[in-house]
């Protein structure tokens, strides 16, 4: 059955969710406080790079199922299903999550709810948040106990956001066990098509649903840091971590995915989520359970310093006065997101040690300039490599994986390449008289 849905927040998560809910046949209102963002979306323009999202957005604007507004009143009047998709960044100077935006959706929306409604939280939040928000919403809403709050965590990956929303590998719903209501039935309506495809649907309590998300991200972060720790050992032992990953990955219990060693994880989720998870565990008296995540974080951050040291060694012990080409700025390929990007962090550290650094990324140039205006930016990989003493591949865009030595032979000053994502074929470069260095191989 088609429902009337409001989605609060139009960032990576909210914009994708709003467009995809319309794609499923619902009438959707996207709500944000950022007028510039809304204007872009209304014009059919996605304010960030996400493959496939623009088509879905345009199609549903055109058929009238998707609209945008800054008015909470309009949203409360229009919809009886509300999704919260605003950000929960890391608090400045602390590990804990900043819940200002989530809180403010409830504080503004709830007083406007005069009819029965279900609010589904999608944002990643510390366990216990949903319970607190539910109490607050029922207290503020004129409809009182007829307002339900449930949690429906999102697992979408940037670069695959549309696919992950329309064809997720599972749907998780947390409901308030103490107050049986309509949330599950409403969720079944909203996701009718997906459930029809046989996508697993796990209905649980609020706390478990919140933890599913944090636990999944903590596991993924751990998997990456595990293989990066193996990379450190491989380096010390003269072994090859890529072959090691392939070999252990054949064991179905381990699996090959998320075992790519390199400069480690970044982005708007994994780093802040594991920190918020540790902080929350401390608050609820389970801090010992998650001390290992501190090590996961340490291993990950060490990758960046290790990369800088490696580059310094390769150019002869000092970066001062050298020219370094950096290919890749986004935290991963197929994204223009540079939040906590290992690539940009490394580029910045190298520049601070006296090198002149030229950066190129297929999509993340504008975002990079905003946070690192002092780096030099090029318009192509070839231009970035002009006069380079060493070339670094820091994000594994297809364009960089496909590079061959002949593309760069004529422009670089020194034939040295460092593969921060172990995404190149060493032989290809070594056979053309390049010095190739991977991480842990
Ligand atoms: C992540 C989770 O995958 C997703 O389920 C959750 O909803 C949000 O957080 P995302 O931030 O889009 O998604 O990125 P992801 O694909 O998980 O990659 C995270 C980081 O890990 C990237 O910087 C990537 O380069 C790095 N990574 C990933 C590795 O270093 N090695 C790997 O093998 C895989």
Task: Explain what this protein looks like in three dimensions.
With 441 residues, this protein is α/β, with parallel strands linked by helices. It folds into three domains: 4-199, 3-Layer(aba) Sandwich (Rossmann fold); 214-297, N-(1-d-carboxylethyl)-l-norvaline Dehydrogenase, domain 2 (Orthogonal Bundle), CATH 1.10.1040.10; 302-438, Rossmann fold, CATH 3.40.50.720. It is built from 19 helices and 14 strands. A six-stranded parallel beta sheet has the order 3-2-1-4-5-6, sandwiched between helices. It has a six-stranded parallel beta sheet with strand order 11-10-9-12-13-14. Strands 7-8 form a two-stranded parallel sheet. It is globular and about 70 Å long. The protein binds uridine-5'-diphosphate-xylopyranose. Residues 154-158, 217, 220, 224, 258-260, 262, 264-267, 269-270, 331-332 line the site of uridine-5'-diphosphate-xylopyranose (UDX).
Strand content: 5-15%
* CATH architecture call of the largest domain: 3-Layer(aba) Sandwich
Secondary-structure-based class equals alpha/beta
Number of domains: 3
- With helices defined by DSSP (H or I, 4 residues minimum), what is the helix count? 19
- Structure ligands: uridine-5'-diphosphate-xylopyranose
CATH class of the largest domain: Alpha Beta
- The whole-number mean of residue pLDDT values reads 97
Whole-number radius of gyration? 24 Å
Give unreliable regions as ranges.
none
N-to-C span: 54 Å
Give me the count of strands: 14
Q: In the CATH hierarchy, what is the superfamily of the largest domain? A: NAD(P)-binding Rossmann-like Domain
What is the fold-level CATH name, i.e. the topology of the largest domain?
Rossmann fold
Helix content: 40-55%
Main beta-sheet annotation: 6 strands, parallel
Q: What would you call the shape?
A: globular
Strand order of the largest sheet: 3-2-1-4-5-6
């Amino acid at each position: 059955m088609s429902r009337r849905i409001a989605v609060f927040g139009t960032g990576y998560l909210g914009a994708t969710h709003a467009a995809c809910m319309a794609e499923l046949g619902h009438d959707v209102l996207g709500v944000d406080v950022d007028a510039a963002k809304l204007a872009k979306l209304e014009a059919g323009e996605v304010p960030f790079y996400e493959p496939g999202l623009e088509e879905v957005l345009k199609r549903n604007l055109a058929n009238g199922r998707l609209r945008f507004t800054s008015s909470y009143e309009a949203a409360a009047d229009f919809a009886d299903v509300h999704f919260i998709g605003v950000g929960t960044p890391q608090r400045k100077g602390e590990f804990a999550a900043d819940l200002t935006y989530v809180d403010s959706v409830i504080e503004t929306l709830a007083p406007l709810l005069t009819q029965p409604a279900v609010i589904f939280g999608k944002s990643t939040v510390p366990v216990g948040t949903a319970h607190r928000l539910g109490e607050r919403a029922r207290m503020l809403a004129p409809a009182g106990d007829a307002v339900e709050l449930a949690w429906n965590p999102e697992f979408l990956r940037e670069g695959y956001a549309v696919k992950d929303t329309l064809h997720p590998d599972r749907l998780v719903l947390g409901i308030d066990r103490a107050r049986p209501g309509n949330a599950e039935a409403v969720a079944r309506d909203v996701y009718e098509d997906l459930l029809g495809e046989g996508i697993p649907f796990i209905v649980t309590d609020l706390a478990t649903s919140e933890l599913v998300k944090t636990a999944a991200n903590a596991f993924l972060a751990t998997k990456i840091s595990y293989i990066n720790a193996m990379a450190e050992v491989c380096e010390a032992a003269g072994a090859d971590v890529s072959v090691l990953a392939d070999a252990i990955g054949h064991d179905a219990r381990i699996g090959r995915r998320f075992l790519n060693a390199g400069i480690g994880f970044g982005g708007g989720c994994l780093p802040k989520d594991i920190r918020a998870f540790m902080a929350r565990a401390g608050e609820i008296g389970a801090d010992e359970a998650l001390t290992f995540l501190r090590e996961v974080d340490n291993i990950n951050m060490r990758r960046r310093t290790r990369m800088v040291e490696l580059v310094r060694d390769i150019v002869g012990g000092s970066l001062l006065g050298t020219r370094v080409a950096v290919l890749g700025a986004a935290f991963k390929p197929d994204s223009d997101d540079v939040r906590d990007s290992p690539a940009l962090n490394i580029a910045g550290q190298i520049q601070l040690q006296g090198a002149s650094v030229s950066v190129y990324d297929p999509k993340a140039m504008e975002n990079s300039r905003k946070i690192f205006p002092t780096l030099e930016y090029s318009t192509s990989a070839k231009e970035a490599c002009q006069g380079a003493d060493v070339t670094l591949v820091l994000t594994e865009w297809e364009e960089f994986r496909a590079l061959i030595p002949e593309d760069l032979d004529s422009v670089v000053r020194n034939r040295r390449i460092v593969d921060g994502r172990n995404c190149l074929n060493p032989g290809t470069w070594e056979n053309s008289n390049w010095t190739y260095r991977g991480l842990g191989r």
